[in-house]
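Section 3.1: Structural characterization of target chains.
Under the original work plan, the team committed to producing a structural model for every single-chain target entering the pipeline before any wet-lab resources were allocated. The record below documents one such target. The sequence was received from the expression subgroup and is listed exactly as submitted; it comprises 171 residues.
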Amino acid sequence: HQVVGPLAVVLREYGVERSKIDALIDAREQDLDASPFGDLDSIVAYARATNARLHDVLADLLGVEPDDGVTRDALSAGAIAWALTGIARAVPVAIGDGTVALPQALLEEEGLSARKIIDRPTDDRLKPVIRRLVDAAGKALAGAPESRDARAAPLLALNRRVSQINKQGIQ
């Protein structure tokens, strides 16, 4: 596969633990499953297992100390928020592709299903579902500790950006 060569370089030359990459790959297998997330907790867990784990690897590459819990927790919270915000923002495109990456339990609370959304993508009942996803992103950020580690600055800037996006609202 075309990723194997560059990935081997990262593992060898930058000292990234292979177990972190393996766990990230395992978590991304969810992307191959067409079934929707069960509930809000399951989509947050997916964001933690994928995006937060990726940010942990990026923190390693940026030289953030492994035992710097404050910075790593801030990065993890931002990564979860970024993932949830991205999923919320991608809903129209996903629906257009015939997929719905929203928690089934939230859809059912609004009397919706994946099929109903695909058939009626402008259904107003979808707005509260998306709002709950955005609120979960905000909750992740609200619990993030403040880090000023200059090595992590590019990733910490994402925390501020996702906060701005969520405050502006997702259309």
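The chain has a mean pLDDT of 89.
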